[in-house]
Specification:
alpha/beta, 248 residues, 11 helices, Spore Coat Polysaccharide Biosynthesis Protein SpsA, Chain A, 8 strands
């Protein structure tokens, strides 16, 4: 029999580095989903943006939208997400990339899933919309393969607070694939405890396709290949062009 578990509050954590051009669109979609949740009697939700040592106007844009900013000067997505989790107050943590548009119903969907005590967390399907048809087909191929291999991306991931900290959060030694690693560890924990990790695939989020629209095809093929990510995931310098100097 399914047991219910009250979701008391939600923290939405957005890690951002030099995202002045994208962060407002992301936060606007998050606010719409937050309001939709509130209008339907859902739990209260807070939004935190972790500024990961940006050198542009990211902080000014976020503050103008009256969203709380947390500072993390050591660059790295895993580090920024862990810092956000430590500053958050919710018993449910939802991690959202800074260049992602979330559907209005998403937080309600997450809240309903986590009202089942058997579910301890999960991820949301992604729907990239690059300009190039060949790149779109390629990304769709990896999207299907990712589901088969349980390689849920971190564009949006959610987890119970106690489960997150019991796993030590995201692995800060990983500079790519920290989201897949966390999802795998969460699944392993769930199996051991007779619990579940839930992948939401009936709705999806739309990440920015800026990299794929501006990069040559070979670069997309190399840097989005999971086997390349697995091989070089602890080599920070290898991913400078992905995180430190991406198209903006």
């Amino acid at each position: 029999m399914t047991k219910t578990k009250l979701c008391k509050s939600i923290s939405i954590i957005v890690s951002a580095y030099n995202e002045e051009k994208w962060i407002s669109q992301t936060l606007e979609s998050i606010n719409r989903a937050k309001n939709f949740l509130s209008e339907r009697g859902g739990p209260p939700a807070e939004i935190l943006v972790v500024d990961n040592a940006s050198t542009d106007r990211t902080v000014e844009v976020v503050q103008a939208l009256e969203v709380e900013v947390v500072q993390e000067t050591v660059r790295g997505v895993a580090k920024a997400r862990n810092t956000g989790a430590k500053a958050a107050h919710g018993d449910i943590l939802i991690f959202v990339d800074a260049d992602v548009t979330v559907p209005e119903t998403l937080f309600c969907r997450v809240s309903r899933l986590l009202s089942d005590s058997l579910c301890i967390g999960g991820a949301v399907d992604t729907n990239y919309q690059p300009a190039s048809i060949s790149v779109k087909v390629y990304l769709q191929m990896w999207r299907v393969a990712g589901k088969l291999l349980s390689m849920a991306q971190g564009a949006v991931q959610f987890v119970r607070r106690d489960a997150f900290f019991s796993l030590g959060g995201y692995d800060e030694t990983l500079f790519i694939g920290e989201d897949v690693d966390f999802y795998w560890r969460l699944r392993k924990k769930a199996r051991k405890q007779g619990l579940q990790v839930c992948l939401i695939d009936d709705v999806s989020v739309i990440p920015s396709s800026r990299r794929f629209d501006q990069w040559p095809l070979w670069r997309t093929l190399v840097w989005t290949n999971p086997f390349v990510a697995l091989l070089f995931r602890r080599r920070k310098e290898f991913w400078d062009g992905w995180y430190r100097h991406p198209p903006r």
